[in-house]
Amino acid sequence: MNVSELLRLLQAEHDETAARADHLREQIVRLTTGLAETEARLAELTATRKVIDGLTPPDHATAFVETATVYQRIVTTFNEHPGKVFRVRDLHEHLGLPTDEPSINVTRSRLGRLVRQGLLEQPGRGRYQKRT
């Protein structure tokens, strides 16, 4: 292999790598923009909920909590206790959910999904907290 062919191969690899870097930068910009928009919407929804909770009589607030999905109740719990680390059983007790193993396993699966979605983090095995 001569020097000119080596330089040609080096330039080709450089061009491919530069194109890949440009593509990744574009993805980062799109994801960053999407994240900012989503976080802004989440802040709006949180503010709206606080206003509605403040205007709702206590008996209506209880009815709303009872009709919320388990996911909503889990996320709300973590939002209300952002620094607290929960074990699944403790979370079940906090939410008044059954503490039998099948129910615990379903919630463990839900928490894993919320971790993968980036809403929660897992600071230790079997422990979950709100992502900061």
Please characterize this protein's 3D structure.
A hairpin with a 2-residue loop joins strand 2 and strand 3 (127-130). The protein contains five helices and three strands. The protein has helices spanning 3-55, 58-67, 70-80, 88-95, 101-116, and strands at residues 86-87, 120-124, 127-130. The radius of gyration is 23 Å and the shape is elongated. The mean pLDDT is 87. A three-stranded antiparallel beta sheet has the order 1-3-2. The termini are far apart. The relative contact order is 0.08. The protein is mainly alpha-helical and 132 residues long.
The main sheet comes to: 3 strands, antiparallel
Residues in helix, % = over 70%
Q: Whole-number radius of gyration?
A: 23 Å
User: What is the overall silhouette?
Assistant: elongated
Please work out how many helical segments DSSP would assign. 5
Low-confidence stretches: none
Give the termini separation. Answer: 54 Å
Quaternary organisation: single chain
Q: Provide the structure class.
A: mainly alpha
Main sheet: strand order: 1-3-2
Mean pLDDT: 87
Count of extended strands: 3
